Amino acid sequence: MAWSTGAELRVDEEVRDALAAGRPVVALETTLVSHGFSRGQGLLAAQDAERRVRAAGAVPCTVGIADGAIRAGLSAADLARFAERGSAVRKVGARDIAACVVHRALGSTTVGGTLAVCGLLGIEFMATGGVGGVHRGFADTLDISGDLAQLARTPAMVVCSGVKSILDVPATAEVLETLNVPVLGWRTETVPLFYVRGGGPAVSARVDDPGEAARIAATHWRLVGTGLLLGRGPDPELDPQSDPDSLLEEAVRRVQREGIVGSAITPAVLNLVEELSGGRSVAVNRQLIADNAGLAAQIAVAHTPD
Known about the structure:
The protein is α/β, with parallel strands linked by helices. Helices cover about 45% and strands about 15% of the residues. It is built from 13 helices and eleven strands. Strands 1, 2, 3, 4, 5, 6, 7, 8, 9, 10 and 11 form an eleven-stranded mixed sheet that branches. A hairpin with a 2-residue loop joins strand 3 and strand 4. Helix 3 packs antiparallel against helix 4 (about 75-85), helix 6 (about 110-120) runs parallel beside helix 8 (about 145-155) and helix 11 (about 245-255) crosses helix 12. Keywords: Glycosidase, Hydrolase, Lyase, Manganese, Metal-binding. Belongs to the pseudouridine-5'-phosphate glycosidase family. It is an enzyme of class 4 (lyase). This is Pseudouridine-5'-phosphate glycosidase.
């Protein structure tokens, strides 16, 4: 058994029972609750994602850190607590987990932080919005998200909307190739760019149904052992009613002028995109996250033996 419980790791009873019985579980992160949206929209996004996981026949495991322990599976009250504290919640990657636990801080896990917990528990599927990667201007800052290194060491599939397009997407794809992390495309030959269905670098392989994705994941874990990304673009009818590329570029320029760096970049850009789009980007973002969660659950169900 790949997991245990104790003072530093508290696994929700439903999640624990599902893992023990070999039923499908999908991990979900909490930075989207505290940092990804404004005015409580992150809480609604998390609730939508959990509902979609359940509707597809899997158990959601939303991960956060509270009261001196990693919490694998959060209650409605727990999620509300993360939403109420907002950006005051500590943003926790894999490197930050121990300090957050010891300091008894409230910590929302990033993709990398959530994957570290997946590794502890043996959870093989995760869903999120966009993943982190190589930041623009990397040559000057050496800023690369810890998500990538954690993907390389965790045998899990992350279903996402591709690499955040505020980043250097081609450079991120190169790093993932170096780390032997396949980037699969859900019914697309190019990496989705969050709000945009395609247009990024070529994917490692296209997949067209959950069973195919599950078979590739299982075979990859058996032969290579690293994680995988599956990029799912927005449905054609999902349109923020404006040019997402121009909005993102304008938001990135403003954030750069303000000197914002590191983990603060993404929430700052998303807030500006929301402002520039008149709030339309929020609905699109929430739908992307929910759709990714539903797909991750379908693949997890397909991966589970009858």
